[in-house]
Amino acid sequence: MTWTLGAGIAGSALFVLVFLVDGATRPGYDARHHPVSALALGRRGWVQTTSFVVNGLLVTVSAAGLRAATGSLWLPVLVAVFGLALVASGVWRMDPMRGYPPGTPPGTPETTSRAHRLHDAAGAVVFVALPAAAAVAVPNVHGVGWAVYSALTAVALTGMLLAFGSAWERDAPWTGLLQRLMIVTGWTWLALLCWHLLP
């Protein structure tokens, strides 16, 4: 159980570290505006693609540890779904758009590829499964503090998801920043949960 929970800690932390460092050092990439998924485009795209797949698999493995530590059925199922959806986000990349990679026209193209649509679907699963997991954790993780933290995380992630969806549709200049806040909030909760449950 220890190593599977450790996989959840590593997968969550490394995913955040990779996109923060890569996004800050990528020429032509604006972390305030562009989504994390855009880092899978261009010559260095393999870095984010690898992060999606490897860290998604690590998070998926952590579901076994969550099952053993909590006895819950739905918490590990939702975390496994979240992890596998991260893997799928790496398998299928988004299309170039909104000025990235450099030279790409601004705005969203009228038509998108099948891979982009599958990437969007996987992303929707990612950002729905994680707040659902936090909500399910409320009655399944011992301690009032953890119940409150999990409940607040579920509410915050749901609110940020709605705000991000609106920002994305309007191509707001702070769309990327909002997505990063949502990711850091959710992935941190998962990493700390796995840490808390270590024997």
Describe the 3D structure:
By secondary structure, this protein is an all-alpha fold. The protein has one domain. The chain is built from 6 helices and no strands. It has helices at 2-25, 45-70, 74-91, 114-137, 144-170, 175-196. It is globular. The termini are close together. The mean pLDDT is 96.
Topology overview:
Blueprint lengths: L1 H24 L19 H26 L3 H18 L22 H24 L6 H27 L4 H22 L3
Helix pairs in contact: 1-2, 1-6, 2-3, 3-4, 4-5, 5-6
Summarize the structure.
The chain is mostly helical and 199 residues long.
The percent range for helix content is over 70%
Q: What are the segments in which pLDDT stays under 50 over at least 5 consecutive residues? A: none
General form: globular
Q: Radius of gyration, Cα only, in angstroms?
A: 17 Å
β-strand amount: under 5%
Number of helices: 6
What is the total domain count?
1
Major β-sheet annotation: none
H/E order of the elements?
HHHHHH
Chain-averaged pLDDT: 96
Alpha-carbon distance between the termini?
Answer: 8 Å
Q: Let me know the number of strands.
A: 0
The protein's oligomeric status is: single chain
* Structural class category: mainly alpha
Which tags fit this structure?
199 residues; mainly alpha; transmembrane; DUF998 domain-containing protein; 6 helices
